[in-house]
Amino acid sequence: MKKEYSMVPLRKKILPVLLTAVFLFPLAAHAEIKANSVELSPFIGYHFFEEDQNLKDDFVFGGRAGYNITNRFAIEGALEFINTSVDDKNQAFTTEGQFTSPIDDVKMTSYHLDVLYHFMPEKKFNPFIAAGYGAAHYSPKINNENLSVISYGVGAKYWLAENIGLRADLRDNLVVDDTFHNVEATLGVIFRFGGASEAEAAPAPVVRREPAPQPVKKAEKKVVAAPVEPAYTVLEFDDVYFDFDQSTLKPTAKIKLDEYIKLLKENPKAKIRIEGYTSEKGTAEYNQDLSEKRAAAVKSYLINEGGIKPSRLKAVGYGQDDPKAYEANPDDIRSRAAKKNMRVLFEIVVQ
């Protein structure tokens, strides 16, 4: 009579493997699967034979070679080897595909072609599902042909460096000819070659550069773009003005800064230098301190009211140096030249 198969022993074998997989990989950190890349992965693991096949569970080793068609879909081939032996030598033959005495040592070679789907390709931790088709060759043979195998299961990749990672797989290798479910758990190392991330593969943004403006004399600077070194574009904003001996922002200055906040949010890579200046009235030491306070007031407004990151801002004061306009009479604090010099200047570099 054919031996009745029970799933209980198989479940007991799978449970420790699942628990190991859960604790093996931590939560995801940032990284990604690269499209058009090749992955080579030697592995070792353990193969659990179905009880009716009468083979001892044993180690399996082999290798995989895969190609990432996109960052989500991949195709790979696998070759693996197992050296095992008959489990119960006193058992009588009861079902097709079963090994019994006088056979002792059994070698199995299998190969299959699989398709993988990655669930989080942009992360450092990449869980996936896999399914494929192949064949298993037993020596000594069970029959005159290799046995067809459908392989399916789950796994995960964890990248230790840009092109080196770890991999875990849990597969059910269904022997189609004899309906054996042989479960396999493996761990391997991944070596990746070539490919490009999604960000690298995307076309670079087009930066439009305005021609250098001709120098003109105006009361206010308009937003212009001036070419500098090839890697940067320098933008200048209208100056923000202050009252004499004051570092408090005027309502008109806040309106301008609100406009600049919108522009800065549209250019998140911009790094800003905020330069404070004063008129020539007063001592150099006093004016230096006042110019720093003016620059700091603008920086504080951009951070607190606009939500601009402090790491993007640098505030400096230059006192009465480098005036915007020449002051013929520094004591005249209401002169047009003095008002032009009581300002904060912006310089923004976009990488």
TrEMBL record:
Principal location listed in the UniProt entry: membrane
Signal peptide: 1-31
This protein's UniProt keywords: Cell outer membrane, Ion transport, Membrane, Porin, Signal, Transmembrane, Transmembrane beta strand, Transport
GO-annotated molecular function: porin activity
Residues annotated as transmembrane: none
Top-level taxon in the UniProt lineage: Bacteria
Matches recorded under InterPro entries: Bact_OuterMem_StrucFunc (IPR050330), Beta-barrel_OMP (IPR027385), OMP/PagP_B-barrel (IPR011250), OMP_bac (IPR006664), OMP_myx_plus_Proteobacteria (IPR030820), OmpA-like (IPR006665), OmpA-like_sf (IPR036737)
Xref: Pfam families: OMP_b-brl (PF13505), OmpA (PF00691)
BP-aspect Gene Ontology terms: monoatomic ion transport
Membrane topology: Multi-pass membrane protein
Places the protein is found: Cell outer membrane
Cellular compartments per GO CC: cell outer membrane; pore complex
Domain OmpA-like: 229-351
Protein name as catalogued: Outer membrane protein OmpA/peptidoglycan-associated (Lipo)protein
